[in-house]
Amino acid sequence: MDDAERAFRDALHRVDSVKIPVPALEPADVRRTPGLGIMLGRWLAAAAALAMVAGLAVWALAGRGQSVVAVPAAPSATPSAAASVPGWLLGTTWMAVQLGGKPTQAAPDKVPFLEFRADGTFYGGDPCNNVVGTYQVADGHLQLFPGAMSEIGCNTGQQQEFRTVLDGTRRVSIDDRGFLELFDQSGDLLGIFQNSGAYATPGPSPTPAIGPAPVIRIRIRNASSVDFTDVYAVFPTGTKVHYGPIPAGGTSKYESVLEAYSYTSLTVKAGGRTYRYQPVDYVGESLLPNGQYSYALNLAGSRIDLTLEHD
Fold first, then answer.
1. 37 vs 178, which has greater pLDDT?
2. I need a surface site. Which of 44, 47, 66, 209 has the fewest CB within 10 A?
3. Cα–Cα distance between 244 and 68 in angstroms, integer?
4. How far apart are CA 67 and CA 139, in angstroms?
5. pTM exceeding 0.70
């Protein structure tokens, strides 16, 4: 027993002779609650006495210069949803610019979109069908809980990709140019959205000129010291090419694409991790001429370094 405990014990001994007045029960009170009223009245009186004795003991203990342990206050109420939602997520309509690795198309006059509200609900559409639901976001993790949607078809492939985003999103980030990126549990990119204030609705695709198709062949070279367990690339036309596993120092087979630049969107899985190389656009870049090329990939920390090689 330390000094503080002994002081508290002595304080209780000093106050045990204090006479605590116990209020007498009025007959009227007894008549209102026969039996129970007497018991309850005595219980309340005893509780009051105990509280007073405890208070006197603490007073006596404090009087001897001993510290009294504070009782923590009850926890505050759960903060509102707005307190945990990052500000950059709110106050705008997020327009999809890429879903499933493909650029979006207006269908019929609008692309899929999402709006997040501070109360933990969201609103969106594909856009022929609207959807409302709730969401949870914290520390880069985001999960959507959409309600039921109608099934009006206008661009069914794009609509399905949007539903994949709604069901599969588990992570969220915003890049330095303000593009919202949504990822699944494995870290694979599901969609890219742009703030409506900077968004322009895509127009109709131009009719391609008649002529021979370009002959561009691209392969992946693993320039790192670790094996790639899976690699896929998404080219500017929306073509997704699965290159599969590539061992350290090895190369994949060539794949033909219609258009390519000196870099493209890439996802690499290695050592149980997922790495992404994600350009948002190709402004100022020139298309590669016909020929064979290699994208040499090297892992540098948590990023991919890409070098174009003309084979």
1. 178
2. 209
3. 67
4. 40
5. no
- What is d(CA 130, CA 154) in angstroms, rounded to the nearest whole number? 13
3-state SS of 72-107? CCCCCCCCCHHHHCCHHHECCCEEEEEECCEECCCC
265 in helix, strand or coil?
strand
φ and ψ at residue 201, rounded to 5 degrees: -60, 130
CB 115 within 8 A of CB 124: yes
Phi and psi for 265 in degrees, rounded to 5?
-75, 130
Residue 174, class by beta-carbon neighbours within 10 Å (0-12 exposed, 13-18 middle, 19+ buried)?
middle
Q: Is 53 in a helix, a strand, or coil?
A: helix
- CA–CA distances in Å: residue 207 to residues 48, 73, 111, 155, 282: 89, 70, 21, 19, 20
Coil, helix or strand at residue 145 = strand
Tens digits of residue pLDDT in 199-257: 665 544 444 444 444 578 899 999 999 999 999 898 877 778 899 999 999 999 998 88
Nearest to 215 by CA among 260, 149, 166: 260
